[in-house]
Design brief:
This protein is α/β, with parallel strands linked by helices and 274 residues long. It has ten helices and seven strands. It has a seven-stranded parallel beta sheet, sandwiched between helices.
Length: 274
Amino acid sequence: MADNISIAVVTGGGNGIGRALCKRLHRDGASVVVVDLDKEAAEEVAAEVDGIAHAVDVGDEAAISAMIEDVEANVGPIDLFASNAGVVFGDGASGSAAADGSIASTDDRWSMSWRVNVMAHVFAARALIPRMAARGGGHLLNTVSAAGFLSAIGDAAYSATKHAALGFAEAVAIRHGDEGIRVTVICPQAVATNMLDLATGPGAAENVFGGADADGIATPEQVADAAIDAVAAGSFMVTPHPEVIGYLQFKANDYDRWVGGMRKLRRTLQAAND
């Protein structure tokens, strides 16, 4: 159970991990604000958790700031802000308009990946850290991915932005931890969400999360439970697939061998799809 969380905001709360986070937080007694680009999805989940819905483009700093201002003024001080919204496109023709299947993703999709996967976290932190610090603390829960320290075969933009999201979370934890600001990052591999369907389903340019399901596909509920338990414990990182820590250690021990192994995995996946 997550202690001392009276009011929580969850972006990307209309489905997948976000919806599961909303439901877990509601069960734990928190008032939940469900934020999603899809207004109907946000309202549906808000009805399930007796919460409030906000339709917000998290890549728009003014929109995030206005939503946070509204919640703080009309609901109360935010104890937990979960930056969970994310996007994935893929490197190949179907995912990124790169007909040769290279990393030449279109600039607009690189830009959207950057704004949603990284800058949305920055925008929330800018608006909330001064408020949280002034009242003695708060918690930022950021959905990153195991791709944030490993890699997502088939999506350079996703891999790059998730690495950046992890780096930003570390920076916040280091810079503001002594002010009572806690940070937790969620770093799963494959999760049974719409994003996984988009990345690996029919029409995907390349198996974007190739190999990510080798250690099983977690449910959103499993990820949400692990995340909120980590928040309660004050942990920085939660890895619902425990195997990824071993992969990270292997990568750190021999980076060249790691890259070579990933190339081999990509060839294997490519051959299976041919």
